[in-house]
Specification:
By secondary structure, the protein is mainly β. It has a domain at 10-54 and 81-119. Helix content is 7%, strand content 26%. It contains 1 helix and 11 strands, in the order E-E-E-E-E-E-H-E-E-E-E-E. The strands form 4 sheets. It has a 5-stranded antiparallel β-sheet with strand order 5-2-1-11-10, with no helix packed on it. Strands 3-4 form a two-stranded antiparallel sheet.
Length: 128
């Protein structure tokens, strides 16, 4: 099983943006003193805080800026549109009757990007 995502996890979109992951207070389950996530933690600018630019021509802001630049790809700030929860979710761990979110899950953006986990927000430490 993968590592459960916690507050402060880092994500990466296939179209360029780096995204900080936030778990909001209504999720009362904590691991390692940090709130743990479920597959329903997928709301832009609440759970997903983008930093960077989008290069997808399916994004209307990128398409219009590229058209204005006479066809030269012009990246614009990332504004993710998320139509569905994370997939696949944990099959064994549930928080508040929802599958837990682990570092093997992905999230699809309506502009064609695939958001994946680069750092789950927790690390395993072996003490000897």
């Amino acid at each position: 099983m993968g590592q459960i995502l916690c507050m402060g996890a880092m994500l990466q979109c296939s179209f360029g943006a780096t995204i900080t992951f936030m778990v909001t207070p209504e999720n009362r389950v904590t691991l390692t003193y940090m709130p743990a996530a479920t597959i329903m933690d997928n709301i832009p600018f609440k759970n997903l805080i983008p930093a960077g630019v989008c290069t997808s021509l399916a994004n209307p802001a990128v398409a219009s800026a590229t058209a204005a630049a006479l066809g030269v790809l012009t990246p614009m700030p990332c504004t993710p549109v998320i139509p569905a929860p994370w997939i696949p979710g944990s099959v064994r761990v549930m928080f508040n009757k929802k599958p837990a979110l682990n570092n093997t899950c992905t999230l699809m953006c309506a502009y064609g990007g695939v958001i994946s986990v680069t750092f789950p927000g927790q690390v395993r430490v072996n003490c000897q």
